[in-house]
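Minutes, project check-in
Item: structure for the 189-residue chain
Input as provided by the requester:
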Amino acid sequence: MTKIRAFIALPLPEAALQIIAELQQELATDLSEMRWVKPGMIHLTLAFLGDITEDSLEKLGTSMLSIGTLQPPVTAIFSGLGAFPSCNRPRVVWLGLDGGNTLNQLHQTIKAELNILQLPIDERPFVPHLTLGRCRKPVPGAGQILGSFRERDYGSAQLEQLVLYESRLGPRGALHRPRYAVQLTGSQP
């Protein structure tokens, strides 16, 4: 049976992607070793599923319809620039995101649905972030460079769509293809 690499995410509106592209350009002047994620590929991952069957993908797509009607849009405030594993040794540079209780509830609802469908659940703590770039080598002075961007205001955005993506790995990175998308139309609590 064919397996499909998949994940569930919230895509960003065009205005937010433009702000992020400008931030990436600014960072690139001092962090030239980084491979920057194309702005159109940036999203907020809620659940990485790994390789799942087409049948499981279909079932999850169907269950997303009920999630969309129950969950309201997420107001995301972009805040804090950071890196994994640390700012002094960045492998991944990210922009933090605060979606409040609405985002946490959406994440918990998705985890519960994955459990019902017996699909893999990532047990690591949910740390909302947007991956901006990746690097394999040490970056001299990265901590100081990233520190100068840490406290800036990066605005906010309304995240209104939940998407189940298929991810295909290629020589130039991953390509993400939306398989199912639903609007978040629930009322705010």
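Outcome recorded: The chain has one domain: 3-183.
No further action items on this chain.
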